[in-house]
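Standup notes, structure subgroup. Blocker cleared on the threonylcarbamoyladenylate input:
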Amino acid sequence: MQTKIFVVDRNTPDKKLLCQAANILAGGGLVAFPTETVYGLGANGLDAEASAKIYRAKGRPSDNPLILHIAEKDALYNLVTDVTPSAKALIEKYWPGPLTIVLPRSAVIPNIITGGLDTVAVRMPDSVVARELIALSGVPLAAPSANTSGRPSPTSAQMVVADLNGKIDAVIDAGPCEVGVESTVVDCTTAVPTLLRPGGITFEMLTDTLGAVEFDKALIIKNAVPRAPGMKYTHYAPQAPMTLLEGPAENIVKNLKIQIAAARAEGKSVGAVVAQETATELNPSVKAAVYGPRYNTRMIAANLYSALRYFDEHPVDVIFAEGISEDGLGLAVMNRMRKAAGHRIIKV
Ligand code: TXA
Ligand code: MG
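Run returned:
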C-alpha cells in the first residue's frame, strides 16, 4: 500500500485534508496523526477489525491494550461505567493534555482494545490537529505510539514513515511534537490512584491535585509485573545495545570517557547520547547525539526519541547514554532511558 502524507499547520490545519484522513478512518483504515506527546497510529476505536490492523502494522503483542482518544470531555461517559472522584479531579485540571486515565470499561468497547482487561484507558489530547481529526471521525480513536513495536516512539512524521511506510494508509504531518514523551497513565479505579506510566503530566502535578498517588510496583521493583501491560515489554530501544550511566553529572562524564576508551580498545565504534555540556568534554571523534542542556528537562524530553533514533541512521557498535535527575519530566525521561537500555545500567 502507498502511504499518503498530509502536511498541515499545527494550529490551523486544512480541514479538507483532515476530512480525507477522517474518511480513511471511517472506512476502517489506519492514519498516523500528531499529538502533543508523540505521533499516534489511529483507527476507529469502536471497530474491532480496524483496531486489529494496528496490532499487525506495529507487530504489537495482542495483550497490550490501546488508549482511546476523545475530542471532548463528555465523550468519556459512553466509554466507561464509572467516573471516580480522582478521575473527575484530574480531568478537570489536566484535560486536554498529556494524561491518560484508566476506568471501568463500558460494553461498547471491543475486547481487542482492552486486551481482555475490564478497564479502559482514555485520553483527551491537547493537539488541535488530533482533536479536529477525532471530531471529524465521529468516533474515539484507538492510538498507540506510531512506531514499530519495541522501537523509540516517533516525535515527527519522518520517524513514523521510517517505521511504517507502506503499512498504513496515511500520515498527518504537523511537525515535531512539543512534549516528546508519552502521556502519564493513571489508574483511577483504585482507592488511592496509581501511577502506571510516568509521562507529560509530572508526579508533582498529580499529587498537587490528588494528594496521595501510589507508584505501580513495577516502577519501583525490578521483577514486579506491571499493571499497564505495555510496560513489561522491551521498549524505546535503539538498534545498537545501549548502556545507561546514572549518577552525578561529573561522575558520569569521567566514567563515560573510560567506557568509551575501553570499547574503542576492543575495536568497537561508539555513540554517545548525552547533554550538551558533556558533548563538549568528549573527544571530537566520538559521535554524539545531544538531547539538550543538562538541566532543561523539557527540552531533553522533546529531543529524547530523536536522540535514541540517531544511531539507527548513523550506525555504531555500542551506545552509552547519560542519565539525568528524576525531578519533574525527568522521571518519564529516565523511565524511557532505562527501558531503552534493557538491563545495561551502570551507577557511577
Ligand atoms: O501519549 C500517549 O499516550 C501516546 C499518544 C499517541 O496518545 N500513546 C501511547 O500509547 O503511548 P501506547 O499504546 O504506546 O501506550 C499505552 C500504554 C501501554 O503501556 C498500555 O499497556 C497502557 O497504556 N494501557 C492501556 N490500556 C490500559 C488499561 N486498561 N490498564 C492499564 N494500562 C493500560
Ligand atoms: Mg508505545
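Discussed briefly. The chain is about 35% helix and 20% strand.
Next: hand off to the docking folks.
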